[in-house]
Amino acid sequence: MSRIAIPARDDVPAESQEMLNAIAKQLRFVPNLYRTASISPNALTGLINFRTAISGALDMQTLTRIALVVSQVNECQYCLSLHTYLGMNYGGLSPTEMALNRQGTSGNAKAKTLVAFVQKVMRIGGKVADEDLQSMRDGGYNDAQIVEIVTASVYYLFTNLINNVFDTAVDFPKVEMEAAAEEAT
C-alpha cells in the first residue's frame, strides 16, 4: 500500500491537469507514478520535461534496458514492473533479455556494454574509471551518447526515488525483485 494518498485524476492540482491529460493521451491511462508526482505541479513538470528530453535522444530498447538495470540496482518494484510491461509491449525485448538486462548483462554485445556501464554508474555514484568510458567507446557509443545514457539513468533514478519513498502502488503486472536473479541463471 502506498505511503501517500495517490490522488484521483480529478483531485490533482489544476496546474497538473493538462500534463496528466497529455500522459493519458499518450499511454491511454495515467500511471500512479505521474498521479503521485502531480501533487507537486513543479515536480511533475520536471519529470515530464526530463522524460521528453531523453525519449528524443535514445531509442525505446536502449531506454528500456537502462530503466531495467537502474530499477534493479535501486530495488524499485514499481519501475521494474512498469518497464517490464513497456519492454514486452512496446520495446521488442524478450523476457529473457530483460532479465539479463536487470542483472547488467545481455545476449547482445553492444547492449551488454551499455547495461554493464549503467549498472556500474548506479552502484558507484558515477565515479567510473577511464577504462569504463573507453569500454563504452569501444562498444560503439560516442561521447554524446554516453552523456545521454547517463542522463537517462538519472531520470530513472528520479522515478525510482519517488516510487521507493512513497511505495507507489504498482498498477502494471507486478514483477518480483527475485525474479531477475532466477531467470538470468
Mean pLDDT: 93
Proportion of residues in helical segments? 55-70%
Strand content: under 5%
**Succession of helices and strands:** HHHHHHHHHH
* Apparent shape: globular
Brief digest:
The protein is an all-alpha fold and about 180 residues long. The chain contains ten helices and no strands.
Description:
The protein has a domain at about 60-185: Up-down Bundle (AhpD-like), CATH 1.20.1290. The chain is mainly alpha-helical and about 180 residues long. About 65% of the residues lie in helices and about 0% in strands. It contains ten helices and no strands. The protein starts with 13 loop residues before the first helix and ends with a helix.
List the helices and strands and how they pair.
Layout: H1 14-27, H2 32-37, H3 41-55, H4 60-73, H5 77-89, H6 95-102, H7 109-123, H8 130-138, H9 143-166, H10 179-184
Pick out its properties.
AhpD-like, 0% strand, globular, mainly alpha, single chain, 185 residues
